[in-house]
Amino acid sequence: MDSVILLIIGLAIFAAGYLVYSKYLGKRVLRLDPAFRTPAHEKHDGVDHVPTNKFVLWGHHFTSVAGAAPIVGPAIAVIWGWLPAFLWVTIGTVFFAGMHDLGALWASERNKGRSIGALAARYIGRRGSYVFLVVIGLLLLMVIAAFAVVIKNLLIGNPSAVIPAWGAIPVAILIGLAVYKLRWNLTAVTVIGVVALYALIFVGDRVPVILPDPILGMSPATFWILALFLYAGIASLLPVWLLLQPRDYINGVQLFIGLAILFVGTIVAGLVFGNGFVAPAINTALPDGTPDIWPLLFVTIACGAISGFHGAVASGTTSKQLDKETDARFVGYFGAVGEGMLALGAILATTAGIQSVARWEEIYSAFGEGSVGAFVEGGGNIIEMGLGLPQSLSATVLATMAVLFAATTMDTGVRLLRFVFQEASEIIGFKMNNLVGTLAVLVVCVGLVFSQGVDGSGGLAIWPLFGTTNQLLASLTLVIVSIMLIRKRRNAFVAMIPLTLVFIAAFWAAIVQVGSFWNGGVDTNWLLLVLDIVIIVATIWVGAEGISAMRRAAREDPEVEDADLTDHVTNTIPTAR
Question: How many CB atoms sit inside 10 A of residue 471's CB?
């Protein structure tokens, strides 16, 4: 029963955040203007810049930023107890992630769809932008490489998810063609697409795919990783309307239905069977080696509370597809709410879904042990108890959710890293086209993944740095948003307060990590140690220049209001309806 109360409180907080706080941000702070000519219209090219229906674009943004992280982070963080994780997810989503994602999208829109890295050059300075670009590139490399390994493990460990995971690709292409070329009604296409995806889940549950070992002279692990990178490379080159948009949109709808199933299962299991938490609200019996909750909680749960990766997506792909600037509130802020809801589902699955205290303690016998596996197991138990679905089918639904989230993030990440490579090449005077940029991304990522063996373990080699790097990037993104608001003489505290708290926690965590890497003695991980120090130095550099830029902005004359600019023209390019 306690789990039902927590679910209701969490959903009420998210609803209040979107209906009240995001409206204040959109109208009073950012002053979103429906007449503003967005980059999707100004630079419409049918490949990267495509005006898009806000519901379709929300699906792209939500599934791109979500990935596996809002499942993995909370699933690990509940080792400190469900209450700290719940508070950080709900408060972080409403006041941190929502502002960050919406602010990054708005900032990019007001600068012709430029990425956060490019905005750093304008608002912080050229030198700072170079460092900013390195941090973004490193973060994207971590995400792409790690998610390739995560998806590989899910496909091998949950063979029933193979057919629905790969079957979603042709379904997405058909949806893209139906919406953009045949101009079919979006609602009808959505219903057909969702039915097709769930039909694939039923087929997958009955026809699990287990690859032979070896396959084409490779292990199943190697085969899946190479297949994933081949797909991501092709997806990076195709027009966004053909695969990226429709895949993310229909996955977003399907995944929201999956969340609804999990939440309904939680309510029924709680009301009928009295199902409650097996995990403590605050865990005082932590396993040996568990780090302190401060500051690690705030970097362990990044996606689902606030994440710098979201700013890269918002300014990298989403801003190039926004039809009207006022759509940013639904796409950006509600996208963050969707991820918060996923994180809430992960907390419930891993604390109320595990069948016994003994089983929970077995899973969480060491820090970092509980993750996607705990989510699939716990969520499957909740759905089976609450809705009567067979445990195997319930597990297939949740495993497919995890795979699709991770896959949509991975293919978006490849496109974004291609943008970073292209921006970097322009700095050194070399223009890199899309094909060369994509090949460069694949070479670097595949090289990292297989750097420690054919099992792909190298993909997780630098993943321990993700939490701190991600949150430091979020704070640096908020620096840019803060500078823009200061220059326009608007309420910059909505960005500066989250900026301060996230920066302190992330920077402290980075220092703690340096100590842990250094104290390894003969086992010191020199790669992580050096990279962590580089990230700390880069953050100090960009942060100092950001503070200086804020002071300059406060002394300068107020920037001309957007209403006085000449960018206001009526949008004339049709969008998907």
Answer: 26
Give which of 438, 416, 462 is closest to 64, Cα–Cα.
416
Bridge partners for 215 per DSSP: 218
Comparing C-alpha atoms, which of 42, 35, 58 is closest to residue 576? 58
d(CA 98, CA 333): 4
Q: Cis link prior to 74 (omega < 30° from 0)?
A: no
Q: Residue 474 and residue 90: Cα distance in Å, rounded?
A: 17
Spell out the residues 6+ positions from residue 44 whose beta carbon is closer than 8 angstroms to its own: 50, 51, 573
Residues facing residue 52 across a β-bridge: 322
φ and ψ at 218, to 5 degrees?
Answer: -125, 160
Task: Sort residue 388 into left (φ over 0), alpha (ψ -120 to 50) or beta.
Answer: left
8 A C-beta contact, residue 250 and residue 51? no
Which three-class secondary structure state does DSSP give residue 568?
Answer: strand
Listed residue (417, 483, 415) closest to 243, CA to CA:
415
Indicate the average pLDDT of the chain: 85
The predicted model scores a pTM of 0.83
Confidence category of residue 29, pLDDT binned at 50, 70, 90:
very high
What residues does 36 pair with on adjacent strands? 568
Q: Which residue has the tokens 């006041």?
A: 95
DSSP states of 470-506 as a string? Answer: HHHHHHHHHHHHHHHHHHTTS-THHHHHHHHHHHHHH
Number of other residues whose CB lies within 10 A of the CB of residue 28: 11
Mean pLDDT of 472-497: 92
Neighbours of 159 (CB within 10 A): 18
- Rounded to 5 degrees, what angle do the CA atoms 152, 154, 156 make? 70
Q: What is the pLDDT of residues 210-230, one digit of tens each?
A: 999 889 889 999 999 999 999
pLDDT tens readout for residues 137-187 = 888 888 898 889 888 988 998 899 899 989 989 998 999 899 888 888 888
pLDDT of residue 131: 75
Domains of the chain: 2-26+55-564 (1.10.4160)
Between CA 539 and CA 474 the distance in angstroms is 11
